[in-house]
Amino acid sequence: MLVFTPTVRGSGGFTGAFASPDGAILAIASAFPLLTNPPARAAYGGQWLRYRLALHRRGEPAPFAAFDDLSLPITAVAFHPTDPVIAIGAGSYDGGWMFEGDLVFWDWTADRAWRPLTHTPEVARCAFDASGERLEVMVRPWDEEWGWDENPTDPFERFYPLVVDYRPADHGTASEARIGPLTGVVIAHLDLAEAAGRIADDQQLADWFAVASPVRRGAIWDVAWLDDGRLAAVHDDCQLEVHDLARGEVRRYDGEDSGVAILRASPPIIHVTPSGRAHGNAQARLMVFADDALGEWRRFDGIYAFSASTRGQVLGRLDRRSEPGAQRDLLLDTVTGDVREIDLGHYDVFNHYLGVDGAPDLYFLQGAPPSSHEHKRMCRLRPDSEVERLWPLLRADGGPASHAMECLGHAVEDGLGAGLIVAGRHYDPNPSQAAQGFIYRKPLDADREIWRHATAGSASAIAHLPELGLVAAAFLDGALTLFDAATGAIRATGAATIDGFPTVIFAMDARRDALAVGTVDGRIAVLSARALIQDHAAGGPIDLSS
Question: Cβ contacts of residue 396 below 8 Å, gap of 6+?
Fold first, then answer.
């Protein structure tokens, strides 16, 4: 059951919208964010869904076709004059030297794509000629220095014409883009001619979809059940949003900051940060949601990851990279209001985030020595701030795979006793290699894995369903899996989809049989765990809207 969906379904943050020459199709280009909230967390492993071109018929919010096989932002779109084919240009500056690019021909009826060029710089604009036999392209230079001798001007305002022959996918071979350094022209980027059919404002978009005003929504960073009928969510557009499922009502709490996490405390604590989190102006605010009101409790400078225990304590780990030399992790007491500064060792967003929240105790990761990010151990923080080191996160074997990063944990307690579910990614010195991850269960009192599975992506969210004896885990490659909490047996698994197109679950919470999820494309849904087991024991896509 979908609880919320934006007006335009299945897209990320809009980067462009282009109407076909006959006005029958709208192509929407969008970008999906990486998992970087709460701010002291960063997990990228396995997330292949970054950019999408989705096609919509007039008045239809759900796309009828989508192209996701892109690793760079979409910069240009052109419809072929006669064939059901779109040219997609992409690219960006790599931040240091190169203008990386891509060019794709996509036949949306056959869902077949081909690249006419093996290598190309960033594409700025493209358009088919009247015959449809050639694609006229404007690209940036290969890098900041290329073409400087012939044209010593700002490389960010220097563009080169390129002509690409259009051939069906089964004919011809790809070649490298050939541009001449003497053909460069200087054009202020804002003065580049807009692509034909480009929709420039929200009113045009509203007219296309026949709505008064289009509702946009970024990624859902967290969801949490408040009770059987109310579900809370946080995203970039407000501090907190509460959905009354029975009444179909939504209550928003707006402010200058945006919500990034919901701590499972009583009452719930909302972690909010300044929108955009400009470097040098990082700040964390903790707000308490009680009696349908949201009020500030504490405010701290710095980038923090917070977790709460059922004993009424809150742990804040400070990202030391944002505050070099700082040693002020925080231990807060929600009952007395006390705030203590403690030092639990080095913390950085890739290596030390854990996210165990709503457990009887507070847990964190610590390197050996504590100033290191290597040889990490699971640790428990006692109420008196004493540290109990439990067990190594991974067994040391001398290789890079024994170094865990992008971790996520969740506390469980059942007939096997108290334990932790821990997921993460094995470090690989070659960043181009496919992500290899893990998920396991260990008891608190022994360095012993009760069960373990290999994964193809870092875990984005974990939830425990104690009444059903299940652990639900969502991964950045789009997978959603239900494990038997005691044995690790897979009870249901599949790729998360909505309207038949892939999505990625960023947030999750469970209450009895109900599994609430929030997605990278701004959707909120509630699933029945029992129905998932019945319908997806053998795999296959999991439609979050059903």
Answer: 375, 402
Q: Which amino acid, residue 242?
A: V
Other C-beta atoms lying within 10 Å of the C-beta of residue 26 = 23
On whether the CB atoms of residues 303 and 318 are closer than 8 A, the answer is: yes
Nearest to 520 by CA among 16, 44, 18, 40: 44
Give the global pTM: 0.94
pLDDT digits (tens, 9 = 90+) for 332-378: 999 999 999 999 999 999 999 999 999 999 999 999 998 888 899 99
Euclidean distance between CA atoms 1 and 523, whole angstroms: 11
Through-space distance between the first and last CA atoms of the chain, rounded to whole angstroms = 5
The answer to whether the beta carbons of residues 507 and 41 sit under 8 Å apart is: no
Alpha helix segments (H runs only) across 194-310? 202-209
Of 435, 476, 434, the residue nearest 49 (C-alpha): 476
174: which DSSP letter? -
Distance from C-alpha of 517 to C-alpha of 525, rounded to nearest angstrom: 5
- DSSP assigned state of 98: B
Q: Which are the contacts of 52, defined by CB distance < 8 A and separation ≥ 6?
A: 10, 11, 12, 29, 30, 32, 66, 67, 68, 70
Residue 411's identity, in one-letter code, is A
Cross-sheet strand order for the sheet of 85-93: 74-79, 85-93, 99-107, 112-114
Provide the pLDDT confidence category of residue 176 given band limits of 50, 70 and 90. confident
For residues 460 and 501, the answer to whether their CB atoms sit within 8 Å is no
Q: What one-letter code names the amino acid at 96?
A: G
d(CA 338, CA 154): 55
**CA–CA separation, 519 and 64 (whole Å):** 20
E strands present in 291-375: 293-301, 304-308, 313-318, 329-333, 339-342, 362-366
Other C-beta atoms closer than 10 Å to the C-beta of 131 total: 9
Question: CA Rg, the chain, in Å?
Answer: 25
Give just the sign of the alpha carbon dihedral 281, 381, 364, 233.
negative
Tell me if 416 sits within 8 A of 466, measured CB to CB. Answer: no
Structural contact between residues 161 and 93, judged by C-beta atoms closer than 8 angstroms: no
Q: What is the pLDDT of residues 394-414, one digit of tens each?
A: 988 878 888 999 999 999 999
Of the chain, the percentage scoring pLDDT greater than 90 comes to: 78
Check if the beta carbon of residue 18 is closer than 8 Å to that of residue 195: yes
State residue 535 phi and psi, 5-degree precision: -100, -20
- With a CB cutoff of 8 Å and minimum separation 6, the contacts of 324 are none
| Six-digit token string for 157 | 């305002």
Question: What average pLDDT does range 93-104 have in this prediction?
Answer: 94
3-state secondary structure of 190: helix
Q: Are 506 and 520 in contact (CB under 8 A)?
A: yes
State the Cα torsion 7-12-16-22 to the nearest 10°.
-50
For 285, the token pair is 């605010």
Identify any residues that bridge with 299 across adjacent strands, giving them in sequence order.
Answer: 285
Q: In 10 A of CB 149, how many CB atoms?
A: 8
Q: Which two tokens stand for residue 179?
A: 């541009």
